[in-house]
Specification:
Elements: H1 2-13, H2 18-48, H3 53-72, H4 77-90, H5 108-123, H6 133-156, H7 160-177
Helix pairs in contact: 1-2, 2-3, 2-4, 3-4, 3-7, 5-6, 6-7
Length: about 180
């Protein structure tokens, strides 16, 4: 969303245009997805208990991805992309046990800053500084996902959206099997 926020600002600097409108819609969709993911997670905790929160949020993400893939078949691609942005916002609810994100799944700027800061502290001799291992794995996972998505898009086109929905469904089933206590 940093890139979309940048595109929005540049679009606003040049007058309201299509690029600014698209960026604003994507940011709004992402934030809406984050809100809905939080609401779904809270409802799951209330009705099913805290161990089902992540599963419920992943199920919701899977539905958004599947609806986006289905919509891409007969509607303007922009509408499908809005659902995908909402799914990316919602997925953060998986790692927000009390409604606040503990690990930013889509916040790579902050992750890279933490890596740099932790490496700097270690370089300066602070052995008590946390290792950057978790953040580095998160960033590498993000880059791997983008790479796999790019390859999928190249090979499958819009059908790659179904692959994303299927992978989210598989992750939902995996999350359901994890003991979160």
């Amino acid at each position: 969303m940093s890139g979309n926020s940048t595109r929005l600002g540049i679009g606003l600097a040049h007058g309201w245009n299509g690029a600014a409108a698209t960026a604003a819609a994507l940011v709004l969709s992402f934030v809406s997805g984050a809100m809905l993911g939080t609401i779904v997670g809270a409802a799951a905790v209330e009705r099913l208990g805290p161990t089902r929160r992540a599963e419920a949020v992943m199920g919701f993400v899977t539905l958004l991805l599947a609806f986006g893939a289905a919509l891409a078949a007969f509607a303007p691609l922009t509408l499908a992309i809005l659902l995908l942005a909402a799914a990316m916002g919602a997925q953060n609810g998986v790692v927000a046990p009390d409604g606040e994100v503990r690990v930013g799944l889509t916040y790579m700027t902050g992750t890279l800053v933490r890596i740099g800061q932790r490496l700097a502290r270690r370089l300066m001799g602070d052995r008590a500084a946390p290792t950057p291992r978790r953040d580095l794995l998160l960033w590498l996972g993000f880059v791997a996902g983008v790479t796999i998505g790019g390859i999928g898009w190249t090979w499958l086109g819009l059908a790659a959206l179904w692959v994303a929905a299927a992978l989210a469904a598989a992750l939902t089933m995996l999350v359901a099997r994890v003991d979160w206590n």
